[in-house]
Design brief:
- The complex is a heterodimer of chains A (about 375) and B (about 260).
- Chain A is α+β, with helices and mostly antiparallel strands.
- Chain A has eleven helices and ten strands.
- In chain A, helix 5 runs antiparallel to helix 6 and helix 5 packs antiparallel against helix 7.
- Chain B is an alpha/beta fold and about 260 residues long.
- Classes of the chains: A alpha+beta (about 375), B alpha/beta (about 260).
- At the A-B interface, helix 1 of A face helix 2 and helix 5 of B.
Chain lengths: ~375, ~260
């Protein structure tokens, strides 16, 4: 057993840390305030290869392993959770299923534009009445000659505002429930696709969360991903991997807040001593660190299991749950350590606290993760 | 054209340093290492020259040190160097600049490099001797502290940084060695695809014993943290006196009033 990162992973980390320090950290607050990640930053992330870390080099990707992708999301999220989820949703939820379920033609047609950032990817599953119960989606499709025609509405779509490439889930017959669902690769700039709004949110405010109306959107038959009726399986498999990305995002948020709290506790003096000389603060730091390290180990192990082709369903649910709960806990304590200053925007931990909350909710609420975990534990019951 | 870039791996300078058991250098346990900052400018300039010349020059990157220096070499390869040489020496920290330069020179002699780039100095030892000593042993021209670099038709023109904000232009014929200073360029980030491509590039390992037959000419006798400073200067007396005292201090000890 070896817990040491490889030399190549260390070189990647070194690059990521430099990039994040110079290009992301200085503008993270502005990204939150202006509710937008500058296009220039998206372009820089694409140029560095952050939008295609584990995709094969045949499609312009870096051809790295899944853990490398996790390190990318984690490091970027330490400074800016909005940028972290842009990468995570784009990579795990859009490039991922095209790579896993797409034909050679589909991969060649879509992946180079995604990897280079010419098109930002998203995943259109959630609907107003279909969140955790994804099998109950109402967006419908019918076949007309060489085309599929899709109609319905989708909400809470991360990266939707870019109108790039979407994996759209729709049903041919709602009474078939999850067996009627198919997945399509859709150009979100196509006629019939309307952005209804980009939501105002508590956190990750630089990330688009978009509501779409799909009105008779005509999609070439060649854009069907996998076979008809396979959509629900594609969605669940995709989210299974995506959760590890969200765990990495949550881990990054927690680490970012912890670094600031640790630093502040050494600088801030009260009663003539740094506040870290107080056991009340020391215990907080110990608890925060413990949660982060536990979450990190499970997250890296989930990434390793996925990379090794082993079953990772249990670990992806575990790491998403542990890391997101570490993130909300650690960011809350980071504010407490900062005292009144923590409540002030200048100190940035308040943003991290707001950013952390969504990680307990999206890509499967933590309640759903507990369902997944307990079902697997009780599989033979 | 053949280009050599000499790099060193140094600890993150924000680390907390403790003397090693012999008390002659820092202990490297628990330290995170990275490429010496000035050497990044050297790598970047070499790669820019390669690009300027349509990819023709071969850029070799070299580092002396224990096996961990391969990390820094890999970074240089990912930035665009063609192949790497590790002069393997677990005790490089005990060698003086003369020995390091001699070992590099022993390798470089057979390779006939047209241009050698080094950092101005290392961030940890800071002797600023290895580059110029290497040039001297090889019998080639050298110029230090460059903040600008141009190459055309076998001739190098550099801008040097002088004291007091002054600059100088220096021309020299190859073969030559330059030492690179902050401000020369902005080193690129190695892209993820290039990190992967670097894995296929050659890293040659040469034991230092095969290259180095020189004795040290200087030794570091001890390594220690200076005594902690007392709590600063407290000015007393009425305001006019304090202002005069402050002005005197600023004039004598700082550059703000010059």
């Amino acid at each position: 057993m070896d817990f040491e990162l490889s030399q190549d992973h260390k070189l990647l980390l070194d690059t990521l840390r430099e990039f994040v320090e110079h290009e992301v950290k200085p503008i993270a607050r502005r990204i939150d305030e202006e509710h937008q990640i500058p296009d220039a930053l998206v372009a820089k992330m694409a140029d560095l290869g952050l939008l295609g870390s584990y995709l094969p080099d045949a499609f312009g990707g870096a051809g790295m392993d899944f853990l490398s992708y996790i390190l990318v999301v984690e490091e970027v999220s330490k400074a800016c959770a909005s940028s972290g989820v842009l990468i995570s949703a784009h990579t795990s939820l859009c490039c991922g299923p095209i790579l896993s379920f797409g034909t050679q033609e589909q991969q060649e047609r879509w992946l180079p534009d995604l990897v280079s950032g010419r098109s930002i990817g998203c995943f259109l599953l959630t609907e107003p009445d279909a969140g955790s119960d994804a099998g109950s989606i109402k967006t419908s499709y019918r076949r007309e000659g060489d085309e599929f025609v899709i109609t319905g509405s989708k909400i809470f779509i991360t990266n939707g505002g870019y109108r790039g490439t979407g994996i759209v889930f729709a049903t041919s017959d709602k009474t078939l429930k999850h067996k009627g669902i198919s997945a399509f690769i859709v150009d979100l700039a196509a006629p019939g696709v309307t952005v209804l709004r980009n939501e105002e949110k508590m956190g990750i405010r630089g990330s688009y969360t978009t509501a779409f109306a799909l009105d008779q959107v005509r999609v070439p038959a060649a854009n069907l991903l996998g076979r008809e009726g396979e959509g629900f399986r594609i969605a669940m498999d995709t989210l299974n991997g995506g959760r590890i990305g969200i765990a990495a995002q949550a881990l990054g948020i927690a680490e970012g807040a912890f670094e600031r709290a640790l630093g502040y506790s050494k600088e801030r003096k009260q009663f003539g001593v740094p506040i870290c000389d107080n056991q009340a603060i020391q215990f907080k730091l110990a608890d925060m660190h413990a949660r982060i390290e536990a979450a990190r180990l499970v997250t890296y192990r989930a990434a390793w299991l996925k990379e090794s082709g082993k079953n990772y369903t249990l670990d992806s649910a575990l790491c998403k749950m542990l890391a997101s709960e570490a993130a909300t806990y650690v960011t809350k304590e980071a504010i407490q350590i900062h005292g009144g200053y923590g409540f002030i925007c200048d100190y940035e931990v308040e943003r991290m606290y707001r950013d952390a909350k969504i990680t307990e909710i999206y890509e499967g609420t933590n309640e759903v993760q507990r369902v997944v975990i307990s079902k697997l534990l009780l599989a033979d019951h | 054209m053949k280009i050599l870039v000499c790099i060193k791996q140094v600890p993150d300078m924000e680390s907390r340093f403790k003397p090693d058991s012999a008390g002659v250098w820092y202990s490297d346990t628990d330290l995170a290492f990275r490429m010496n900052e000035y050497d990044e400018y050297a790598v970047e300039q070499a790669v820019q020259l390669k690009e300027q010349l349509g990819g023709e020059p071969e850029v070799v990157v070299l580092s002396v040190g224990p096996d961990r220096v391969v990390e820094a070499l890999k970074k240089a390869l990912a930035m665009g160097c063609d192949r790497a040489v590790q002069v393997q020496d677990p005790a490089a920290h005990l060698k003086d600049p003369w020995q390091i330069a001699s070992a590099i020179a022993a390798y470089a002699k057979g390779e006939n490099f047209n241009l050698i780039f080094t950092g101005l100095q290392s961030q940890d030892r800071g002797s600023a001797q290895v580059g110029v000593t290497l040039a001297e042993i090889l019998g080639i021209a050298s110029v230090t502290t460059i903040v600008g670099f141009e190459y055309a038709d076998g001739s190098v023109t550099v801008r040097r940084e002088l004291e007091g904000g002054l600059k100088a232009r220096v021309q020299l014929k190859t073969p030559a060695l330059v030492t690179c200073q902050l401000g020369l360029n902005v080193p690129r980030y190695p892209t993820l695809p290039n990190i992967m491509k670097a894995k296929k590039k050659e890293i040659l390992t040469l034991p230092v014993g095969e290259l180095l037959h020189e004795e040290a000419r200087s030794v570091t006798a001890s390594f220690y943290a200076p005594p902690k400073k007392s709590g600063g200067i407290v000015l007393e007396g009425d305001v006019a006196v304090q202002v005069d005292q402050l002005l005197d201090i600023l004039r004598d000890k700082t550059t703000v009033l010059r």
